[in-house]
Here is the input.
Amino acid sequence: MAQDGLQFPARLEVINRDRRAEPRVYHLFTHDIGSGGVSFKTDIGIPEGTLVKVQIYYSLPPTRRAPDAGFMIQAEGMVARSEGSEMAVALKRNYKIVSRTAD
Here is the structure.
């Protein structure tokens, strides 16, 4: 049996060109992360070519000084593949890594 890759909680938002449209936001878990993208096990069926914003959350072990320490990767990208129960997003290179303890 194949083992799943890097599984982290993530938030995926479809970028709407029509500002009047309701935002579509999904809370998922990553299936795998690579240097150019991220894949998800999901059946939400976002069409290939759709622009999205992705936030991936990583928690660090809690300490007394930082009980909720961790960081978040923020990126934009495009759905590169969406078939069956898997979706892959190609990420732009201008991602940000943000400390979650800064809020």
Notes: The CA atoms of residues 72 and 98 lie 5 Å apart. The two ends are 40 Å apart (CA to CA).
